[in-house]
Design a protein that fits this description.
Length: about 280
Amino acid sequence: MKISMQYLSKIFISVALISSVSFAGLVDAISVIVNNQPITLYEVYKYAHQFKVSTRDSLDLLIRKKLEEAQIKKLGITVSDFEINAYVKNLATKNGVSEFQFYEMLRSKNIDEADYKNDLRKKLEQEKLYKRIIHTKAIKISMKDLQDYYAKNKSQFVTTDSFDVVAYTSAHNASLEAIQKNPMQNLQDVTAKDLTFKSGTMDSKLEGLLNATKTNAFTQVFQTGNTYTMFYVKAKHGVKPVPFDEAKNYIYSVLSSQQDKATINDYFDKLKSVATIKVLRRPNS
């Protein structure tokens, strides 16, 4: 029996269409229902890709998001257009540009102004919710707590006159992580350069990072634009300890931030424990 190529082409096209429709139906299918609010598989996969996490962690993030949205609505938390415009104006001023230039920058990055403002509204609503939650618990930090943190983290509280480092840069995060595991590797996409940084003439965040990194050790990899960077600390010169009295205010802010985070997480853990959560389809990992 002779089968024409035209007939075979029709079969292949039909199969492809059926497969694509089936996949679309699967992705748009509801994965979990949280207090009658659905979360689709598409949302789970989108969040996993966006935040570089597993689908399981992505689902946890989305469940938390649904709980937050419900609390924002329940507590009547709102953000006005005036608040959004004031936030944008302040942000533009900090970046040394006008509001018009700020929105031009967004457009140059293919970011829609309405979408940006909508995301900003949600962010500010979340911040208001978190502040309400935090205010329900008083911060309890004793002098002993401050002293204990100082004693256990003395490497954080030093000043250094200068640092001898090797700066590694690459377009690929994985390449720098590979060098962390085996510094003897010679990867073509990685550039290494010897540098010396002097205290007071460098970015304060970078100085803090280098101070916190031990000699003969790598910093973590961080991203700037499309480039990944890390430093290997070869030597530190003029290292001096920061007295406890000068460090205690910073330590208090660190510990209070930790307590705030724990308070918020505990709040939503309790909400999650009493929420009605129905799992219909678990996403593939």
